[in-house]
Design goal:
Blueprint (H helix, E strand, L loop, with lengths): L3 E9 L12 E2 L15 E4 L5 H5 L8 H9 L1 E8 L8 E4 L5 E4 L5 H16 L12 E6 L60 H19 L1
Antiparallel strand pairs: 1-4, 1-7, 2-3, 3-4, 5-6
Amino acid sequence: MGHTNSILLAVSKCPNPTVFQKTLSVNDFYFGDEEFPYPMGHISFVGKMDRDSLRGGAPAIAPGFALEIMGQHSLDFWLTSEDLPDPQNRVTLDRDGKIVLSYRPNNEEGHKRLHDRLKELMKQQSACVIHGHNCHQGLFARNRFVGDRIPLAGVAHQNGTIRFGHDPKTSVLDANCKAHEVDNLYVVDGSFFPSSGAVNPALTLMANALRVGDHLIERMN
């Protein structure tokens, strides 16, 4: 599993000189809302777009000055939704020992609704704190340039494949990340995740590794 990721780009009437844009995020819809009581995911800013980053997905005829202006006036959003477990999504080896990745995205409805919530929020913005007028004009998917969905090749937080759980029929590891059938085998990387959350898993991985470490110390003593 990985994340279900998208980029949305809003073009504002006002310049956006932000440097450390990723310091702001919104989790109001992470666990759903009254209209859709299911997890939708996490909204944050992505690193600030500029002419060069926009050039990678823009049409070849797009003038550099236009991309420069867009980068100066853009608000660049990163949307992440949970990737749910699917028995058909798996990593296997073929007869030649080559890795075969079988994967189909899911949780599409939750991710689409997260897009819709962000668009609704942007439409509610009525004033610019700098010039006193509506700055945020037009939120549109970045697929006008490169496609708003991040492809599987762009996933950086792979997890799953050796999920933990209480039932050996549906999991490989027990609650302490020990293999059900091998007494001295523990797995504490991202493989143990039963599903992929909608945030960076690094801190969760670290916390779990410390938890399992305490368990090992107690067991060895």
